[in-house]
Write a structure and sequence with these properties.
Layout: H1 12-46, E1 48-52, E2 58-63, E3 66-69, E4 74-77, E5 84-87, E6 92-97, E7 101-105, E8 141-143
Antiparallel strand pairs: 1-2, 2-3, 3-4, 4-5, 5-6, 6-7, 7-8
């Protein structure tokens, strides 16, 4: 049996192009949604957040679940995926409040030993964010003591 030959008319390429274009648009829409979700997750994990005390001084920065002091020394992490930061030895360090403020709660309840996450590696240069301005302390909080911010 001889192989059959397909004859393409002049109108079929346009139909094929339209089909391909609509298919590509649908795939691109799905890809854009996937990239947006992945980008949001990546952004959440990799973004840099500068942290300040109540006087507005730059005291630390956060990248993902890890917190470093302003010198780049690893000082803590966020084991419970909330705003509470513990030291590398599992002691309470402070809580991240709105406005990128790191304060220490006086009424923080012990949540158990969080474990050790493993060394996070080099965080990269955080840059200098400047002065954030004064912010009054929330009730029952204080600035994180400087000795806890040393690496």
């Amino acid at each position: 049996m001889a192989p059959s030959r397909v004859v393409v008319s002049e109108s079929e390429p346009d139909a094929d192009a339209d089909r391909c274009q609509s298919r590509n648009a649908a795939v691109e829409t799905v890809n854009a949604r996937t990239r947006a979700r992945a980008g949001a997750a990546t952004h959440r994990l990799c973004r840099l957040e500068h942290l300040f005390d109540s006087a507005g001084n730059f005291i630390a920065f956060r990248r993902g679940r890890y917190v470093w002091n302003s010198d780049g020394d690893w000082i803590g992490w966020l084991p419970w995926d909330d705003h509470d930061v513990v030291t590398t030895t599992g002691e309470y360090l402070g809580t991240i409040f709105p406005g990128h403020r790191l304060y220490r709660r006086g009424n923080w309840l012990y949540r158990g030993y969080p474990g050790y996450p493993g060394y996070p590696g080099y965080p990269g240069y955080p840059g200098y964010p400047g002065y954030a301005g004064f912010s009054p302390l929330p009730p029952l909080t204080d600035d994180v003591p400087p000795e806890l911010l040393r690496g």
